[in-house]
Amino acid sequence: MALCIIILLIGWLFIIHAGTENKRFHPDEALYTTFARNAVVHGDWLLTSPLDKPPLSIYANALSQVLFGVVITDKGVYDLPIRVGEFVARIPNLFAGMIAIALFIAIEKKIFRPQLPIGAISLILAPLFIQLSASAFTDMLMLMWVMASWLAIERRQSFWSGVLLMVGFATKPQAIFILPLLIMRGLWGKPRRYWLRWIFGMCIPFILLIFWDASRGVTSIFALGQYNYPTQTLINNPDNWIGRAWLWGEYLFWGANPFIVLGMMFSLFLWQPAKAGNGQRAIHHRQNPYFLVIFIVCYSLIHIVLGIPLYDRYALLIIPLIGLLASRYARIGILMGVLVIFVNIPIGRDGYPLDSEGAIITLAEEINRLPFAAVVYDHWRGWELGYYLGAWSEKRRVYYPNPSIQASDSLNNPERWTRYLVAPIDEPYDMWLDAMREVGYAVSLYKQIPHYIIFSLNPPITKSHHPIEIHHRFYLPHRQRHFCHLWGR
Questions:
Q1: Where in the chain is the domain with CATH 3.40.50?
Q2: CATH number of the domain at 359-485, please?
Q3: Rounded CA gap, 139 and 316, in Å?
Q4: 3-state DSSP of 4-61
Q5: pTM attached to this predicted model
Q6: pLDDT tens digit string along 403-453?
Q7: Are 100 and 130 in contact (CB under 8 A)?
Q8: pLDDT tens-digit map of 154-183
């Protein structure tokens, strides 16, 4: 027991250290946090903005903001300070990571009864687990519920296993991938009552999720999720399988800790696996690790063969399974695994560059200094910039997929005031400026800041738009100006 407590504390320290790093949001983290901020600051608790994700992780984010981050400004309105929001949005995952470690220790004891919690040690040494525990992604909360469902099925609590599985689904739909493992471990060959309790348990959270989705009065999260998910074909082109397998292997190798993976492979080929606890020579059928290998292989093949995008965080679901394998095969790699913690591995952010200099915050501050209700064309930073502009920014940020559509559609906006285009310095923005020049805009450099550049775009003056008419249109009453804010979105 004392050793387990020590492992929990070490895991907590690793997660806290990663969570307190000075790092900006990944675009997806910014999107989830913006939804949560809208709930807290603007009262949009039904999340009526276009949403394609289940709500539980967003509500957890919002609750963290209410408890630790939101302030009341001198104008008497709620607000979330930008840098404070970067930390409080990650607090739910900090706790979820800690709880996941405790659940893992319980599962490891239930399955293998080890004398030492080697699997738990390998889990807290997994860079992917640490990074996602210190993030605002939805994956760690999902993993926590999935592992709770797994522990329940190991304890023959099929009803609660079903409930917790669907709660995980309401956090992130990827939780449903664990379903075959739960069937193998606790339902296959069991009486019908076990199945009925499990199914009934799943129905309760799922019905509540459907009811919540219908009550929003907007496009369903399921319909929007199916539309937005970037799949092209059910089966990926076989020519891509080798490349996808290599990429997936990198995610597992670095995400599970390369020293532990190598130590596990070394032990597997040269030594026998550790014997079961209490000196047993035979391995009980419920302690047989082959079910872990089967699930890892099948889960990996699904991501390699099917036409779905590959993100490193998708590998998180099988990191605990690799930890369980390590408890039997990778004892030699555990001590070496400590070394990788001190190596900077970009896992959990899909290679997204860290912004330790705060360039995106500086950009947002410059945009907020632009004239009231200025139109800002933003093709590159999207969700991320949306968060850093703040909850009360009145700038009309507009996205277009390509330069020609932006240029032609910009003429449909009758306002003649200066507009702006923001771009990262290392992106090919010339074609966007050329497209605006072709339709009559006068382009000039407004300001250059570290990593970003802002251009002024002065629309062509036509006879149909007299300056007096423009002046009258700009100063609208507050209620009408709100609709003007949405122009071009």
A1: 359-485
A2: 3.40.50
A3: 7
A4: HHHHHHHHHHHHHHHHCCCCCCCHHHHHHHHHHHHHHHHCCCCCCCCCCCCCHHHHHH
A5: 0.86
A6: 999 999 999 988 889 999 999 999 999 999 999 999 999 999 999 999 999
A7: no
A8: 999 999 999 999 999 999 999 999 999 999
